[in-house]
């Protein structure tokens, strides 16, 4: 649509990155009733809703076990601890992710190793991983690969399964951003030996506070994760090992149970909005083939093997800082996930990776820009976002 048809902007025309209230209002009565039920039951710790949520979420992910816990960060830790990953076992992952993907590896005492990303999907690149696995100069045993399904799109699982067969490593999914995404028809959460989900309030499936989930098809891992989250305790006050307190709060489980009824529709709405963004960028002649932008923007690449749930709609753009400032002046939200690849974060300096070690991750960190994305985002808001970007690129 030409920009002349876009209604004039006024103070109320802000386009937020995320608007929680638009999701909350239509389900408010159901949410409050679910919370009230927990309060009436007075079962706040591992109450009935936790078990029901674990079962329902695992069933949607088509995996045998779901183990609720306190956050996505804890889910990563629990998954690795359940698989007895520890000192002496390296875990290979991506530098373009949230901090705790890597900090959780250190938390189980294992050294993290990093490999670069695929510049089209921003996910861990299996070719770069294969190189790291074949690098005989590193004496350390690589026990697991931890790909992240970044922005809501599964990492290239066929290739990782191939590497699993070749090198006998465990595959653990960081599925924090990808509830409902699939790879060749298989849901995120069922792809690896274990998976970790986050239900942090900005996630596509979100709680009203911190919450997380481990999923696994392995009975032994499930059993270990379920006791590690309660101080390694199976029978009250009889401890089998040292775990942690990382239970899923019953009120959060009740909220999540309500939201599970809607998640498929919300994910579909995100996909529709992603298509609309794509079309608008093309209509404005702004879309470039990629993988790197020159004068316009590079749109998200969707791997044909998967379904992308668009937890985030992320473009690549030149002059990103100026573009963000331009959008902010017009009341349009945007975010950068993530501005500093993890090998260049101060606490990970000891990993020993210098600048230049992962050129694709470093370049993406300078160019990626997430635009407003949530299921209730309106067409008019999307038109305003794209018109403003078109205006910026002149
Ligand atoms: C990729 C990724 N991994 C791990 C986490 C950690 O989850 P949480 O914030 O629930 O601890 C997040 C979310 O912030 C994430 O996006």
Q: Would you mind describing this structure in some detail?
A:
- The chain has two domains: 25-260, Type I PLP-dependent aspartate aminotransferase-like (Major domain) (Aspartate Aminotransferase, domain 2, 3-Layer(aba) Sandwich); 263-393, Aspartate Aminotransferase, domain 1 (Alpha-Beta Complex), CATH 3.90.1150.10.
- The chain contains twelve helices and 16 strands.
- It has helices at residues 20-41, 48-60, 72-82, 99-107, 126-134, 157-167, 219-228, 250-260, 263-283, 320-329, 359-367, 379-393, and strands at residues 65-69, 89-93, 112-114, 141-146, 170-174, 182-183, 186-187, 194-198, 212-216, 233-235, 238-239, 287-288, 297-298, 306-307, 313-316, 368-371.
- Strand 4 (141-146), helix 6 and strand 5 (170-174) form a beta-alpha-beta unit.
- Helix 3 packs across helix 7 (219-228).
- The relative contact order is 0.17.
- The model is unreliable at 1-9 (pLDDT under 50).
- The structure holds pyridoxal-5'-phosphate.
- The site of pyridoxal-5'-phosphate has 15 residues, from helix 3 and helix 4.
Q: Average the pLDDT over all residues and give the rounded result.
A: 95
Helix fraction by DSSP (H/I, runs of at least 4): 25-40%
Estimate nothing, just give the exact number of structural domains. Answer: 2
What is the C-alpha radius of gyration, as a whole number of Å? 21 Å
Let me know the largest β-sheet.
Answer: 7 strands, mixed
Q: And the CATH topology of the largest domain?
A: Aspartate Aminotransferase, domain 2
- Span of the ends, CA to CA: 16 Å
User: Which CATH top level class of the largest domain fits?
Assistant: Alpha Beta
Bound ligands: pyridoxal-5'-phosphate
The fraction of residues in strands falls at 5-15%
- Tally of helical segments: 12
Structural class determined from secondary elements: alpha/beta
Kindly report the name of the CATH homologous superfamily of the largest domain. Answer: Type I PLP-dependent aspartate aminotransferase-like (Major domain)
Instruction: Enumerate the strands of the largest sheet in spatial order, edge to edge or round the barrel.
Output: 1-9-8-5-4-2-3
- Unreliable stretches (pLDDT < 50, length at least 5) are 1-9
Number of strands: 16
CATH architectural arrangement of the largest domain:
3-Layer(aba) Sandwich
- Which sequence of SSEs, written as H and E, runs from N to C? HHEHEHEHEHEEEEEHEEHHEEEEHHEH
Tertiary shape: globular
């Amino acid at each position: 649509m030409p920009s002349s048809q876009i209604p004039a902007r006024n103070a109320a025309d802000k386009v937020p990155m995320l608007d929680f209230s638009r999701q909350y209002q239509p389900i408010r009565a159901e949410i409050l009733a679910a919370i009230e039920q927990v309060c009436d039951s007075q079962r706040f710790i591992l109450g009935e809703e936790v078990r029901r949520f674990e079962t329902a979420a695992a069933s949607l992910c088509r995996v045998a076990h779901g183990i609720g816990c306190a956050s996505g960060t804890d889910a990563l830790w629990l998954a690795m601890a359940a698989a007895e990953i520890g000192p002496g076992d390296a875990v290979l992952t991506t530098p373009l992710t949230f901090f705790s993907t890597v900090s959780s590896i250190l938390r189980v005492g294992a050294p993290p190793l990093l490999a670069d990303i695929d510049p089209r999907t921003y996910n861990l690149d299996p070719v770069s991983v294969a190189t790291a696995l074949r690098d005989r100069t590193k004496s350390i045993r690589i026990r697991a690969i931890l790909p992240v399904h970044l922005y809501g799109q599964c990492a290239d699982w066929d290739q990782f399964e191939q590497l699993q067969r070749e090198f006998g490593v465990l595959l653990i999914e960081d599925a924090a951003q990808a509830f409902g995404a699939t790879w060749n028809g298989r849901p995120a959460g069922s792809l690896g030996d274990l998976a970790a989900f986050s239900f942090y309030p900005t996630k596509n499936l979100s709680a009203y506070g911190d919450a997380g989930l481990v999923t696994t098809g392995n009975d032994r891992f499930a059993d270990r994760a379920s006791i590690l989250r309660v101080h390694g305790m199976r029978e009250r006050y009889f401890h089998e090992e040292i775990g942690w307190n990382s239970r899923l709060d019953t009120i959060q489980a009740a909220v999540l149970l309500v939201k599970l009824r809607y998640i498929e529709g919300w994910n579909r709405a995100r996909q529709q909005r992603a298509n609309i963004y794509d079309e608008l960028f093309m209509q404005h002649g702004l879309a470039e083939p990629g993988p790197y932008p020159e004068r316009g923007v590079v749109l998200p690449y969707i791997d044909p093997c998967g379904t992308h749930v668009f937890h985030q709609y992320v473009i690549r753009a030149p002059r990103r800082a100026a573009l963000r400032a331009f959008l902010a002046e017009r009341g349009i939200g945007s975010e950068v996930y993530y501005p500093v690849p993890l090998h260049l974060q101060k606490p990970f300096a000891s990993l020993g990776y210098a600048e230049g070690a992962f050129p694709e991750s470093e370049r993406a960190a300078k160019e990626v820009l997430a635009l407003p994305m949530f299921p209730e985002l309106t067409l008019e808001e999307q038109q305003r976002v794209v018109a403003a970007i078109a205006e910026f690129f002149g």
